[in-house]
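Marked as duplicate of an earlier ticket. Keeping the data here for the record.
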Amino acid sequence: MPFSLVGFALALILATIGHEFGHLIAAKVLHIPVKLVAFGLGPTLWRGFFVNGVRFEWRLVPVGMAIGLPGRRSETGEDRRSWKQDLTVAASGPLASLLLMAVLIVLAVLTRSGSATQSWLIATAAISLLLAFYNLLPLPGLDGGHILVLSAARLGLRLSPQREAMLHRTGLKLTATVCMLLLAVRMAGAA
């Protein structure tokens, strides 16, 4: 299916925002403070502050979004919230991606058959589905990695708060690097 670079970027932005809004909504419903809302990947170009000290950032590569919450444990290892709350927040991103996929499929069915809009909606739904499954992989920094660490902690296998944060930060950096490389390959293929 032909998919322009702009169409691909818009689809990726929509799928990522939908996913991250799942985390954001779950955090707000569970009264977990949000520390960061960042649009894009890579180095920060601009940062400011919203209400209640929430940091807002624009980053170099205008694809993707991230929500930052306080660590689930204090520096001394005390739990700040229940593991169920953290599990809910981690699972809500992939769930939101699946919900977005369903909405996009319904919109595609309601759109004129064979149109460019219908093709874009279907492709964006596929990206949202892939994002849900990718985030469920048990890799550090991804939702599946958070679920794995939470499950291990429930079984008594706890990392120190510093090591856990370092593990997830490293995983996120690797994931961001892979995403930027894939985007660069996509851009080179479209040229």
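See parent ticket for discussion. The chain has a mean pLDDT of 88.
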